[in-house]
Amino acid sequence: TDVPATASSSGANSNSPAESVTEDSSQKNDTASIESSKKTGETDPSLQRKYFKNGVEAFEKKNYIIAEYYLNKVRDTYAVLADHTLYYYAKSLLLQKKYESAEENYFKLKTEYPDSIFKEKAALEYADLYYITEKYYSAEKNYSEFITAFPASALLPYAKYQLALCQEKNGKYQ
User: Fold this and answer.
1) Phi then psi dihedrals of residue 3, to 5 deg
2) No. of H helices and E strands in the chain?
3) Most CB atoms within 10 A, among 63, 75, 100, 143?
4) Over 50: is that where the pLDDT of 42 sits?
C-alpha cells in the first residue's frame, strides 16, 4: 500500500488501549486522505480537462510516453470525451510498440463506442496492429471487416492492399 508502516498498536510500544485506538484511527484517517486525493485526480472535471489536453498536446508533439501518462489518468473516468481519450491512448501505445495494451484499448474503443468519430481509423489501426505483430489471420479478418464496414473510405485501397498481403502470408494465392 501507499501508507507507510507504523508501529504495531498492540506491540510493546503501546502504553494503553486508548493510545492504540488513537493510533489506529489516525492511520485510518491518513489512508482515507490518501485514497481521497487519488480519486480527486481522476474525477475532478477541471483536472480531467487538463490531463486530456496535456495528453493530446503531447501526442501531437509525438511525445507518446507523456501522452500515455496523461491519457491513462482519465481514460476510464472522462466520460465527456471517453472515445477520444481511448483512441489517443491506444494510438500512443501502438506507436510505442506496446502492442498488447494497444490491442486491448482498440478493442475497447471498437466495442464500447461503435459510433465514435474514430471508428474508421481505429478499425484500420486495429487491423494494422495484427499485421505488425505478424498475426496475419487476425489481420486478414480485421481488414476484411474494415472493407465491409467502410466501403466508401478513402483508406479502402490501403486496406485492400493489406488484405492481399495477409492472404499471401496465409497461403491464399488467387
Assistant:
1) -85, 130
2) 8, 0
3) 143
4) yes
